[in-house]
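TODO from last week: model DUF3097 domain-containing protein.
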Amino acid sequence: MREYSPDLTPQWKRPKAVPEVAAEPDLVVEVAGTDFCGAVVACEAGTVTLEDRFGKRRVFPMEPRAFLLDGAVVTLVRPPRGPSAPARTASGSIAVPGARARVARAGRIYVEGRHDAELVERVWGDDLRIEGVVVEYLEGVDDLPAVVAEFGPAPDARLGVLVDHLVPGSKESRIAASVAATSPDVLVVGHPYVDVWQAVKPSALGIAAWPVVPRGQDWKTGVCRALGWPENTGAAWQHILSRVTSYKDLEPTLLGRVEELIDFVTAPD
């Protein structure tokens, strides 16, 4: 007896095979049937997270024929598992599993305010504990000369200071210069932003840019008003901080300065 294939559909009517493409990080695809286009930032079991050019992220199921790559229909699949990369801290350093915090050094890093301290802890906290570096905040830069004099920097107790709005001609730049001249064991560096909020990349918050706040207005309140947030700067900061997951969410001008301070206070005598 002659046997027939269970699929009697003519060859020319059968759907063409759709290529499978591994959802590797930074692969840019378009979601079929929508206008959303983005780069792969995460791939979990059955879903892929895409980020568009404005920093907006959305999660999509990895269904067959659900995506377009260079205009062609594809099916995204999970990338093959290779050798595990070393785990890294939020700052990008190689993590040391099970490492205990080092006894605090005599040296310190001072930042201007609580928000600065919380942001540094968020990204560099693991590194600072391993190095035994304590971060404290000043509640403003005006008292910095007195703080430095009381601290008494020395080769085995170096002091690093991170200052907001450290630009030529500013009050902060004059105070920083006077303090730096007092001892080679003090390093004062800063970023150009009015407030450390601005050191968080707008893309991390899903906004195009930080608003320009007119002179005479409280900057943080003005930002909340311009972005349509409740005028509660404490709640606004917690929202901003929650969107920072690693050094990639911060501007390079802040990253370099904090790394410089850590190197300074941990350098051999």
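Done. The mean pLDDT is 87.
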